[in-house]
Write a structure and sequence with these properties.
- The two termini are about 25 Å apart.
- With about 130 residues, the protein is mostly helical.
- It has helices at about 15-30, 35-45, 50-65, 65-75, 80-90, 90-105, 110-115, 120-130.
């Protein structure tokens, strides 16, 4: 069973407009973290995971770096940065990262949460991705 998520595809999705707005915000928003965070968040949370992947790929193609990497250069680590990292991750990669961190930290509740919410085939895919990474 594959979950479709709660954010649906944006019908007027314009990847180039999103990429340009994020880039301008990151380059002109130096020292204005709240504005930068609000603009990036406003775009990313209104796009489906698939659309966020397309935005990040286009951004990487044009600027040879990712949105997350550019944000890391502009703001300190924190909840916002971690949220952006999660938003820009494919769901399987996010689960793998959470599982890896939980194993390293001995956080059994996260391990259970990740594994107990998956079907057998999803666990197999998770294991395959985990081993490859």
């Amino acid at each position: 069973m594959v979950s479709s998520g709660t954010i649906k595809e944006e019908s007027n999705f314009d990847v180039q407009a999103d990429v340009n707005k994020i880039r301008v915000t990151l380059k002109e928003g130096i020292g204005q973290c709240t504005t930068m965070e609000n603009t990036v968040a406003q775009i990313l949370v209104q796009r489906s995971n698939n659309q966020r992947q397309i935005i990040d790929q286009q951004y990487r193609s044009e600027f040879k770096t990712g949105i997350f990497e550019d944000l890391q250069n502009e703001i300190n680590k924190g909840n916002f940065l971690e949220t952006v990292k999660a938003l820009l991750s494919k769901p399987i990669q996010y689960d793998v990262d959470c599982l890896h961190d939980a194993i390293m930290d001995g956080n059994e509740s996260v391990i259970c949460e990740v594994l107990c919410t998956k079907t057998h085939s999803e666990i197999a895919e998770l294991l395959s991705t985990y081993e490859a990474g």
